[in-house]
Design brief:
It comes from Glycocaulis albus. Pfam families: Glyoxalase (PF00903). The protein is built from 2 helices and 8 strands; from the N terminus they run βαββββαβββ. By secondary structure, the protein is an alpha+beta fold. It has a single domain, classed as Roll (2,3-Dihydroxybiphenyl 1,2-Dioxygenase, domain 1), CATH 3.10.180.
Length: about 130
């Protein structure tokens, strides 16, 4: 069985994480929480029904390469899903690799839009027997 995403996050790569924190917290009024695991730190703004905005500081910030919609695989199975997508001819941009708190993989939809799957490290990467 191929796993299906249950929640969604929109991930932004930003040039100045502290400026971003101030904007989303002070200007937009979102509850923004600092996280460890990426330098200098990264941010999560929890929205409703399991939706999140996530921010990472990056030296490679260009218009058009952010944000990325990231689907959360609560039950795991990222290896199975990415293998199945590749077998269907989907362009895999980044194979399954370590990400803060777990594993992720990036791929393109038919129009070239970047999407990603992420799962926590605690759940199995494969759900096959």
């Amino acid at each position: 069985m191929i796993p299906k995403p249950q929640e969604i996050a929109v991930v932004f790569n930003v040039a100045d994480i502290e400026r971003t924190e101030g904007f989303y917290r002070d200007t937009l009024g979102l509850d923004v929480t600092r996280q460890e695991g990426a330098e200098p730190f990264w941010l999560i703004a929890d929205l409703t029904a399991g939706s999140q905005l996530i921010f990472f500081q990056s030296d490679d910030v260009r218009p058009g390469n952010t944000p990325i919609v990231v689907f959360d695989l609560k039950a795991g199975g990222i290896d199975d899903l990415i293998t199945a997508l590749a077998e269907q001819g989907v362009t895999i941009v980044t194979p399954v690799s370590e990400a803060p708190g777990g594993w992720s993989a990036d791929f393109l939809d038919p129009d070239g839009n970047a999407l990603a799957f992420w799962q926590r490290a605690e759940v199995p990467r494969s759900l096959k027997g």
